[in-house]
Write a structure and sequence with these properties.
heterodimer, A: mainly alpha, Non-ribosomal Peptide Synthetase Peptidyl Carrier Protein, Chain A, 3 helices, 0% strand, globular, B: alpha/beta, Peroxisomal Thiolase, Chain A, domain 1, six-stranded mixed beta sheet, five-stranded mixed beta sheet, 17 strands
Chain lengths: 78, 354
């Protein structure tokens, strides 16, 4: 989880990601940020995220992003 | 809706981009981006240099420059033109049709059929469809398909999700009948339920232009634009490109029994590099068969990106060889389409500046 938070802070250092339940609605991530996040998650976790998984619900909050990563890693350890 | 044609060909493609270059490195601060974010976006999305018009240059000016270039070089004779279709969302006026204005400027004869089609990123496919349908008529031997936009003039310079991607361009494609079979397969789809996902909300008749609609507002997400500027539901459009679009492409391949491996190049609308890389992954297509570097060189010029990609990436090879290509366009409407055909050798395939 620390790795994910550090990626998010690289992209938008000004935000407290843990405090938001809806990162997109609250304006913490815009569509360019999500694309950058996907690229950094792929590099950082060694996964390839399918295009159809790049959607609102999967990037809504930390919990959902973490669940998406776990699905690709097929592991609870991230 | 699927369509099939035969004995028709594209005989030449010319793209016209503005001379004026804009570099992302010089403008990223307009959007409130940090230098690190600018570098990340350059790498991931492929935003770098764009070509946009200066002043009041219109799509028709870019297309006219292309037509005059072809006539001057002896690659097109005015008297051979039977029909002229213009695909654009940026006409000179609400009325008359811009194709008629070009008809007048070129001094074409009264027998030449002209019409405009209001389409964007899928527009090249719509234009090809109309051109092939016209060529079924015995009186029509040569159709000009003009496709382009100058949407930089309808995008807020502070809109960080739109403006860094937008490019302007025009193009001229010549289509004719041929004695060769050349089977052409198309699949075209529409979904008006999502018509507000890519929209310029005000300035026409539903919401006429006013001081209020021209006012640039700061939106809840911190982005800025007016109601007369181009709006895109970015996340929604991205998902559309990764679900509906590949489904239509797969449908067409299944219908035609053509294998993906038979295709030499996949020339898709250049939305941005990330979308195209994800589409290539989804379809299982090698990235080198799907050029994705046009946004970083010229910007996203909606209906013109397919001819611009062909002119930029395949110009030399298409003057010599025949290739089996798959085209795909997707965007405003929503509308999306795909096509498989043989292309080349072409009489001309070039990109010029104006």
């Amino acid at each position: 989880m620390d790795k994910l938070l550090s990626i998010l802070r690289e992209i938008r250092p000004e935000h407290d990601f843990a405090a938001s339940e809806d990162l997109i609605f609250d304006g913490l991530l815009d569509s360019f940020d999500i694309v950058t996040l996907v690229a950094k998650m792929e590099e950082g976790f060694g996964i390839t995220i399918r295009g159809e998984d790049v959607q609102y619900n999967n990037f809504k909050n930390l919990k959902n992003i973490k669940r998406l990563i776990k699905r690709y890693l097929k592991s609870d350890e991230i | 809706m699927r369509f099939s044609f035969s004995k028709k060909k594209i005989s030449g493609i010319l793209s016209v981009v503005p001379r004026n270059r804009v570099r992302f490195e010089d403008e990223f601060e307009n959007y409130g981006f940090s230098r690190d974010k600018m570098k990340a976006l350059k790498k991931v999305i492929g935003i770098d240099e764009r070509r946009i018009v200066r002043g009041e240059v219109c799509t028709s000016d870019l297309c006219q420059a292309g037509l005059e270039y072809l006539i001057e070089k002896g690659l097109l004779k005015k008297e051979d033109i039977d029909a002229m279709i213009l695909i654009t969302q940026t006409p000179d006026h609400f009325m008359p049709p811009t194709s008629n204005i070009l008809h007048g400027k070129l001094g074409l004869g009264h027998e030449v059929v002209c019409f405009d089609i209001n389409q964007g990123c899928s527009g090249y496919l719509y234009g090809l469809l109309q051109a092939f349908l016209l060529l079924e008529q015995p009186m029509i031997k040569k159709v000009l398909l003009l496709a382009g936009d100058t949407l930089s003039r309808r995008s807020c310079i502070h809109d960080r999700n739109i403006y860094p991607l937008i490019g302007d361009a025009g193009s001229v494609t010549i289509l004719e009948n041929t004695d060769e079979t050349n089977k052409i397969h198309m699949n075209i789809k529409s979904d008006g339920a999502r018509s507000d996902w890519l929209i310029i909300p005000a300035g026409a008749f539903r919401l006429p232009s006013s001081e209020k609609t021209r006012q640039v507002k700061i939106l809840p997400d911190g982005n800025r634009r007016s109601e007369e500027d181009f709006y895109m539901n970015g996340p929604g459009i991205f998902l559309f490109t990764q679900t509906d679009v590949p489904m239509a492409i797969k449908e067409l391949f299944e219908f035609t029994s053509i294998e993906l491996e038979e295709i030499d190049y996949f020339i898709f609308h250049q939305a941005n590099r990330f979308i195209l890389e994800k589409l290539a992954e989804k379809l299982g297509v090698p990235k080198e068969k799907m050029p994705n570097d046009i946004v970083e060189k010229y910007g996203n010029s909606s209906s013109a990106t397919i001819p611009v990609t062909i002119s930029h990436s395949l110009d030399k090879i298409l003057l010599q060889k025949r290739l089996k290509i798959c085209l795909a366009g997707f965007g405003v409407g929503l509308s999306w389409g795909t096509l498989i055909m043989d292309l080349g050798p072409l009489a001309f395939c070039e990109l010029i500046e104006n």
